[in-house]
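Board notes, transcribed. Complex of a protein with flavin-adenine dinucleotide.
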Amino acid sequence: MPHEPIESVVIVGGGTAGWMTAAALSRYLPNATTKITLIESDEIGTVGVGEATIPQIAEFNRMLGIEENEFVCATSGTFKLGIEFANWGRVGDRYFHPFGAYGFDLEGTDFHHFWLRLSQSQDTPGLDAYSLNASAAYSGKFIRPDGDPRSVLSRLGYAFHFDATRYAAFLRAYAEQRGVVRKEGKVVNVHQNSADGFITAVELECKDVIKGDLFVDCTGFRGLLIEGALKTGYEDWSELLPMDRAVALPTTSTETPKPYTIATARDAGWTWRIPLQHRVGNGHVYSSRFTDAEKATQVLLDAVDGEPLGDPRHLRFVTGRRKQFWNANCVAIGLSAGFLEPLESTSIHLIQSGVAKLLSLFPGREIGPVERNEYNRLLSTSYQHTRDFILLHYVATERNDTPFWRYVQQIELPETLQHKMDLLESRGSFFRYEDELFSVVSWLAVMQGQRRGPKGYNPVADSLSANNLTKSLANMRGVISKTVAAMPTHQEFINRYCSASPTVPAENV
Ligand SMILES: Cc1cc2nc3c(=O)[nH]c(=O)nc-3n(C[C@H](O)[C@H](O)[C@H](O)COP(=O)(O)OP(=O)(O)OC[C@H]3O[C@@H](n4cnc5c(N)ncnc54)[C@H](O)[C@@H]3O)c2cc1C
């Protein structure tokens, strides 16, 4: 019966994707009608990386009713105001991709047109001086935004860094409290209906057979159900994004945590630095066509500050996405659905987006093509938009100093990306299509920061006299500096509200 509710959802995999899915489904599906089982294998374990996020994750927390300070504390988290990109436009350059707005719009027109007009006619500070996020980040400050739209603080945006293992454990406790049944064990066999290929059950090594109506494949890169059983196929994007390896290494902290991620371009890839409360996450994402594991590990070891907290961990991946995210009665969420390298911390967001869309399109017992097709259409668009934005970082650059950078220079760009770059580069125009994730602030930050900023601007910016414009922009910079000066430091904020191990008593802050 198409309208009868699903009785049993089986989630295979207990990494970030599995537990995010379990938590959200347990929050919204009526417990009495729909049983949720999650199977995970301690022997296989999780990918163990994935510690930087984008601001949309706050919506996920809100959707689940999670108290933010409790979540930051439980995951040894820190706050993230954006990403500093070093060496991307040219070696020695750095810029900030902020999670909040630039300046204030004037005459109903985006701020950046006014800044472009001024910066093209006289010496004026760079975009970072007009970003509350960038200014606070570089001063090591943090505070939550103000809800009052008249306050400059309402323009602050933030996300989190957190410990991936602690995040999964936190969500597991949440989901189990809401009735999710966890089974430990390894799935060794997938039972399918011979007529339509639908999955009927999964079989564990211990011979237990778990039946279900809807299966969610959260088994990571292996895609045990979506690929192993259903042979869905993979759209390989590695000609566009040639990164296919990573080496990760947590280290001790040598300073108080910065409220931002650092992504530094290297000869054949880039390194990340993610500060948590109790350690720093580091890694090197690289292309095996242009370097090898030994050299890549050395680049990472040379880049870290603290003491290693283990051995370097090597990972392999193929950039791309599953040809269908939802096939038959199986929805792939997380790394089983696809992977875009972590340059803009988008994977956890794509999990969130998959879970939210699954809930919106949640099927009845008889799973048909209507919801499935729409889910696949929406997710395909999200992956494509995200891919284009990541690719932008490699192609909007003057770097051609190594074989890797010369290779990326000659990549034939997808039309969708070329179109966006052309519009922005010409006169600073930008349009957000469909459910597109990244806004003009993000695109402008990268293009301007990598020396491919707009050549012209919208003529509305000529409507103010040069004198008034200079004054307005100076005023904006003043407001931002004053606001940053009054903020607590990032460490003080953590100590006060969400310290995993309090170091400074709250009354001293
Ligand atoms: C180098 C790197 C850096 C990253 N950095 C970021 C980042 O900064 N920000 C971000 O948003 N994302 C990042 N990601 C992506 C992020 O790590 C993943 O999106 C996230 O961890 C989700 O992984 P997952 O749950 O899909 O898979 P996994 O963590 O691999 O979990 C798979 C689960 O499936 C189970 N399983 C597998 N096979 C079986 C079986 N046969 N039987 C039973 N259980 C099974 C495993 O035990 C495990 O529980 C990064 C990824 C990589 C590779």
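The first strand starts at residue 8 and ends at 12. The chain has 15 helices and 21 strands.
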